[in-house]
Amino acid sequence: MELVNVMKALGEPTRLRITMLLLDKTLCGYNIEHVLDLSQTNVSRHIAKLKQAGIVAEEKSGQRCHFSISPEFRNGYAPVYQFLMEQRATDEGQYKLDEICYQSYDECGCEDPNCTCHVNKEA
């Protein structure tokens, strides 16, 4: 995981939105599509770049994929990770709107009985 690849990946607005959304949760692609109002193709393309940079990890569950921040990014780039967490906590713009949309989204709709999209959701 090279710094230049991490920064390139985070330098694209949609990839940064996906990263900010995943900072403290695991989501399936369907949920990311819904919250960010993006097509499956668009989400897949951006997730692929985030995975190549080592920022996002993927776990398959049945026919669905669940995504989270990789432990390598969280630990290897701890200051960057912490900075992103702080930015999201104080943001009054798009990242806050994305988090509100996620919090108001009751079901991920992925129909996977093992789906973990709701695990870290606050009640």
List strands and helices in order, with pairings.
Blueprint: H1 3-10, H2 13-22, E1 27-28, H3 29-36, H4 40-52, E2 56-61, E3 64-69, H5 71-76, H6 78-90, H7 94-104
Antiparallel strand pairs: 1-3, 2-3
Structural features, described:
The protein has 123 residues and is mainly alpha-helical. It has seven helices and three strands; from the N terminus they run H-H-E-H-H-E-E-H-H-H. Helices cover 56% and strands 11% of the residues. The chain has helices at 3-10, 13-22, 29-36, 40-52, 71-76, 78-90, 94-104; strands at residues 27-28, 56-61, 64-69. The chain has a single domain (3-103), classed as Arc Repressor Mutant, subunit A (Orthogonal Bundle). The longest helix is centred in the middle third of the chain and has 13 residues, at 40-52. The chain has a three-stranded antiparallel beta sheet. Strand 2 and strand 3 (64-69) form a beta hairpin.
Largest sheet: 3 strands, antiparallel
Alpha-beta content class: mainly alpha
CATH superfamily: Winged helix-like DNA-binding domain superfamily/Winged helix DNA-binding domain
Report helical residue fraction: 55-70%
Fraction in beta strands: 5-15%
Number of helices: 7
- Going by CATH, the architecture would be Orthogonal Bundle
Span between N and C termini? Answer: 35 Å
Number of domains: 1
Strand order of the largest sheet: 1-3-2
Number of beta-strand segments = 3
Enter the CATH topology name: Arc Repressor Mutant, subunit A
Look at the structure and give the mean pLDDT.
Answer: 86
* Topology order in helix (H) and strand (E) letters: HHEHHEEHHH
The geometry reads as globular
Roughly how many Å is the radius of gyration? 14 Å
**Low-confidence parts:** 118-123
